[in-house]
Write a structure and sequence with these properties.
alpha/beta; 8-stranded parallel β-barrel; two-stranded antiparallel ribbon; 10 helices; about 15% strand; globular
């Protein structure tokens, strides 16, 4: 099943393996694409990954995780981003991009967040966002969606996980506001409404979420699914399920540790999900699909170590694929 392909709207994935967004911290301070990004994403496309979702790309300069993140806050970024899309398409993969505002986890001089609560460690205490700040961020998400479409991406993923701004609003641990935004679903809905003004209905719209915070009083699969259900009719097509990242806590991570979270979100939202978590073996990925815990499976760190795992381990799950002709002499 892993190699059977999957259809999302009018997009056909050749298999169900996903490269999730992983920050590479390799852009210049202007957030521009360089040769590393072309090679990095092109290699995974050549290696047979069905869907490649580009790393968290900043919608505002002060919303980047670091000053080495890729940017999409200005029209001049579109030219470089198109090059990433072209190399992914050239080698037969579907191109996605994740857009993000890091909120209190942005390594900038004056970070902002829903409330003046620090993430901890060496992170600064953010300034509580004013209503104008919120309005500006919402508009920036919309303009980022417009630029992503102009660059040619097939899928747009809004980052609502790992303790970044959208998730900070959704979690009662980081949102202590007393106005209408004390309900984080209000902010999520405004972002979604702005994004769909610019993101075409025939392209895929995804949302990444942290489905569990591993501490009492935090987000659970049930509460995050409630948030998803409040906006899914706006045009949400796919949920990318992860966990943690909003508070400093030790997580007992093991191969596939987030798959049950994905299954629960799928059951509660009736939307297709991407699941994963330290999966290093395509047989485990195959089982995740066949057991209906996920519709697609992401391989993160393993794709950094082994960009050709999809073509080299196909036989392990009984799949026959077309090997890149350039590398056929190296096929075992």
């Amino acid at each position: 099943m892993l190699y059977d392909g999957y259809t999302l709207k009018n997009i056909q994935l050749k298999n169900r393996v996903v490269m999730p967004p992983m920050c590479m911290y390799s852009a210049n301070q202007q957030g521009e694409v360089n040769n590393f990004h072309i090679v990095h994403y092109g290699t995974r496309a050549l290696g047979g990954v069905g869907l490649i979702i580009q790393e968290a790309t900043g919608i505002m300069p002060n919303g980047r995780i670091t000053d080495q993140d890729l940017g999409i806050w200005d029209d001049h970024h579109v030219k470089g981003l198109k090059k990433i899309v072209e190399i992914i398409h050239e080698h037969g993969s579907v191109a996605g991009i994740q857009i993000n505002h890091a909120g209190r986890k942005a390594k900038v001089d004056h970070p902002i967040g829903p409330s003046a609560i620090t993430y901890g460690g060496d992170y600064a205490t953010p300034q509580e966002m004013t209503l104008n700040d919120i309005k500006d961020v919402v508009k920036a998400f919309g303009q980022a969606a417009r630029r992503a479409n102009e660059a040619g991406y097939d899928l747009l993923e809004i980052h609502g996980a790992h303790g970044y701004l959208l998730f900070q609003f959704l979690s009662p641990l980081s949102n202590k506001r007393t106005d209408q935004y004390k309900d984080g679903k209000v902010f999520l809905k405004e972002v979604m409404e702005e994004v769909v003004k610019y993101w075409p209905k025939d392209k895929v719209l995804a949302l990444r979420v942290s489905a569990y915070e591993y501490v009492e009083g935090g987000v659970t699969p049930d509460t995050i699914s409630e948030a998803i259900n409040s906006v899914k009719d706006l045009g949400l097509d796919l949920i990318d399920v992860s966990s943690g990242g909003n508070v400093l806590v030790k997580i007992n991570a093991y191969p596939g540790y987030q798959l049950d979270l994905a299954k629960r979100v799928k059951e509660l939202t009736h939307l297709p999900v991407i699941g994963g978590g330290l999966i290093t073996d395509l047989r485990m990925a195959e089982h995740a699909i066949s057991s209906r815990r996920a519709d697609l499976v992401y391989l993160g760190r393993e794709l950094l170590r082994n960009p050709y795992i999809v073509i080299n381990q196909a036989s392990d799950v009984g799949a026959e694929i077309t090997y890149p002709i350039q590398y056929i002499r190296g096929k075992k």
